[in-house]
Sequence to fold (960 residues):
Amino acid sequence: MKKEMFEPFNSSDNNFEQCVKCTICTVYCPVLEVNPDYPGPKQSGPDGERLRLKDQNFYDESLKLCLNCKRCEVACPHGVKIGDIIQLARIKYSKKKPKVRDMILANTDIVGTMASTFAPIVNPIVALKPVRLMMDGVLKIDHHRIFPKYAGMRFETWYRRYAASKQNDFKKHVSYFHGCYVNYNFPKQGKDLVKIMNAAGYGVHLLEKEKCCGVALISNGLINQATKQAKHNVEAFKKSIVDKNMPVISTSSTCIFTIRDEYPHLLGVKNDEIRNESELATRFLFRLIDSGKLTLVFKKDYKKRIAYHTPCHMEKLGWSIYSTALLKMIPGIDFVSLESRCCGIAGTYGFKKENYKTSQGVGKPLFDQIESSDVDFAATDCETCKWQIEMSTTKKVEHPISILAEALDVEATVKLWQK
Amino acid sequence: MNKNISKEYDVIIIGGGATGAGTARDCAMRGLSVLLVERHDFATGATGRNHGLLHSGARYAVTDHESAAECIKENMILRRIANHCVEENDGLFITLPEDDISFQSQFVDACKSAGIGTEILDPDFARRIEPSVNPDLIGAVKVPDGSVDPFRLTMSNALDARIHGAVLLTQHEVTGVVKEQNRVIGVVLFNHERKEKVKYYAKIIVNAGGIWGHHIADLAGVNINMFPAKGSLLIFGHRVNKMVLNRCRKPANADILVPGDTICLIGTTSERIPYDQIDNMFVSRKDVDVLIREGVKLSPALTATRILRAYAGVRPLVAADNDPSGRSISRGIVLLDHQERDGLSGFITITGGKLMTYRLMAEEATDLICKKLSVDKQCETAEKSLPGAEKSEHPLSIATEKVYTGANISQKSAKDRHGTLAKNISNGDDYEDSLVCECEGVSIAEVKYAINELHVNNLIDLRRRTRVGMGTCQGELCACRAAALLCESSEKSGKAKDDLANFLQERWKGMLPITWGEGINEIQFTSWIYEGIYGLKPDNN
Fold:
């Protein structure tokens, strides 16, 4: 029989049949280690999928305990997309509608727009203990959680006022997908990125209009909205990558992971034209340096001891090596390796009251490692990992880009390419 | 002769297939004292080696009106009395561009006259309700097909027979028939468990041995010419289709795709084999090729679906003419009163028919037995539910109250398999709820229940009762766990290792004809575990 006859029909995109039941995924599941109510990735994924195909009543709400850390997929020797199978099952079979709380947690840009406008009022209010207890009781957002502070001036506003006009002075250009966190909560990270890229000779531009990548919408089951935003973003990326030949970089590992790898599988939004040119900032920089196109010069007096935490999505992308290699280029850095473990927050997961205990249980081995490492601060590429580690340890967490920006000798770096 | 059992039964039934178990149930319900003997285990012959299709009869409507009418009647009865063994999936008879569409109206008319409800569907609509169907179809007819689990169905009949006082002996092979002049008065059995001979006596001996009935009749000195036709099938790793898919044309090779429990299967081929080959159920490469080639025409998705195993069964048809394919033989019921036919009293044979009509066969056989014994009792098997099939107040969707628990899967699966009898399986205990078979969701408690209540002699029997080892891993993870549980509860622990080796060997036999792709990875992994880690050697078997 000719090969062409087979190709148009592929029954199971999630190839769960390639599972040979080796159970390695189950060993690597951080949730199963602390919460025996979760059936584990093998049972929830490939095994459960067979049962759900027989009768959808076999769908089990315990699948909501999955963090979507994808460590099972990294561990799988046969490339089974275990995490995707679980996510899709939740999308397809869950009868529980997202709650008001889930809407609030998932709609990072709408909530962010409102909250940053009233930041001086919102920040102190949500930090008040009675308010947190009320959110705990009414919304089931755990009272231990502290919401990240909203910034008074959004990154986009800052960029338009203070940075935009200078960007066309450069010969080379990139677009920057800043994500919700940088825009509403932590514009400094975006400013640091602009500082580094400008020092490296690149003009930084914003997309025509970016929307939230939608990762929180996906995990909270708001699929239609996520799909809409995904389509919008792919179009915006195309205008930069295809029309203007400008790659898009991001400082958020989760945003870039969602755009590259979750859009096609989970939302059915094709991204072939933009995928290769959608990059994480640290990887973009490392590859420039590695290919001899860029040299960074660092301050001589910068001295710090830091530990890098590998976010789950960086583990899945296989990209933490770029961030750590960049950090190790800074001469004054005393680098501590951590065993790669999930921090337990998984975006909005850890904010939910029912997940708080699991979330902290998952993260504990990581927190212990960081506490005992005697570092000045920890580093990571993911914003939610940052909140979790800062809440659960005594250490501050910085983004590698911010560390580079701090350690960079801008004038000396610029001189190298200006002569 | 080690033993002479003095007790005389009213009836001894030879054969633990659906017909034998059904006859035992019917006889016991009518108040007769019954002994059922089976050489291996329940449903090991043709009963357990077919599609598991709850025929609507539509397949035979054009060629065999009588069988079709019997089928639809029994189909409706089984939905009532055996709902825990039946899945009401419905079926489609599809016409492809290579088929003659004019056959469709002939088919619909024939169904109508046999009493089978049909509905002609627009191809577009058919594609919507059954997305796996070949999108090139040009016609579709919906019929009340379904799926039936033959292992569960047979066991439920056996259980009900036992509830009504019948004695069940598996692992007892008939090696001789005891005669007194022109009368059969008993059977000589070889007990494979204890390796000894025993004799049992009865007023009537019923030969319900399926294709092996030819040999049993031989032992009694009468001749029945059986027509052994081998049919091969392939099991796929998961359900591709929701409805049974058939071709709307005269019956041919590999033209039925049935979704059954967690899997789906395609079949069959048909090949005449010599009688001495009926215990050699080898599936050839040619059979596999035919099944795949024809199967993908029903559902192209099969090309990308993992094949779990291949198996074959023998149709127990009674030879009537020289039809080389065996397909135009009526699947009608053959009830032989050897007193009338051969002048040998106390001996009857019930054969022919098919899984779908097992209950009717049992009824006809029992009517004859009752007549001979002058018992005046009406058959009630069509009205009274089988154990497990009683109307349940708890549907599957709320089988378990706990929301966040891994035990959910095992409790739902147990309910799905055992119907209301699942209440006898303990739950709520973390240990008992944990899984033995992860693919099929079989818990420790379910295995224990099967061992204690469902006539389990070895791991292979356990598989037929619970689906242990029937999933994608084919025993890789569950065989050793199940062996340990069986070992704990039986005194004969010394045999456990051989039993485990036998079980794995039997799994391997079904995988051998389709060893490629993911399947071969899985097999390799299994052999690492059992040969590498546990040191189980092939010569343990």
